[in-house]
Amino acid sequence: MFYDNVQIGGPAYDDPGGEFVPGRFLKLGCTITTRGCPKKCGWCKVPFAEGELREIAIKPGWIVQDNNLLACTEHRLTAVFDMLRAQGRNIYFNGGLDKHFLKPLHRGLFDSIPIGELWFACDRTMDLPHLERAAKILDGIPIRKLRCYTMIGYDDETAEQAEQRIKDVLDLGFAPFTQLYQPPTAMMPTKIYTAEWKAIMRKWCRPAAYLKGIK
């Protein structure tokens, strides 16, 4: 009714993503320097929507939303961190950093910038040893800067096992942020959760509440 040219697309329509345009779909300050991911996790829609990891132009920003930045080459990471240092403010890796790709050499890159938050993920109990290795590499960074997505309800994990995993993540020095699993595509039925599962999610999705008294 009001525009001659209307185009429908973007992340909600499984657009594979092209060059990132600051301010389009995401607030100013966000940046994406790669699309896709080399992994194919069963709960993630990125492999279906964006495919394999590919580099795109580096646009300035301080909130990094890449799907798997650490899977890039060392040369590429150096270029991204050169851009981040130029921002002159705290840097947030809200898109997540893959613990499986984290190497000791990356610690120097993180130490070269003012860290806002480093986000990782631990979605299965079998991932805890990898998060423990990451904790050793990141030793000395306070828990208020180390965050961890903790999806619950995937596969056959029980509620008790899920909450124990969350507590283990906290013990490793990461502040959990818990979310209930839902299938990645609209073709799959929505998963219904009991009050027990919802209570765990509510308890562990508020770091400001459960971190009181922890420096």
CATH architectural label: Alpha-Beta Horseshoe
Structural class: alpha/beta
Count of domains: 1
Beta fraction: 5-15%
Tally of DSSP β-strands: 8
Shape: globular
Helix fraction, binned, reads 25-40%
Low-confidence stretches: none
Characterise this structure.
- With 215 residues, this protein is α/β, with parallel strands linked by helices.
- Helix 4 (128-137) links the parallel strand 6 (115-121) and strand 7 (146-152).
- The protein has seven helices and eight strands.
- It is 28% helix and 14% strand.
- The protein has a four-stranded parallel beta sheet.
Topology:
Layout: E1 30-31, E2 34-35, H1 46-49, E3 54-55, E4 63-64, H2 74-85, E5 91-93, H3 104-111, E6 115-121, H4 128-137, E7 146-152, H5 159-171, E8 175-180, H6 195-203, H7 207-210
Parallel strand pairs: 1-4, 5-6, 6-7, 7-8
Antiparallel strand pairs: 2-3
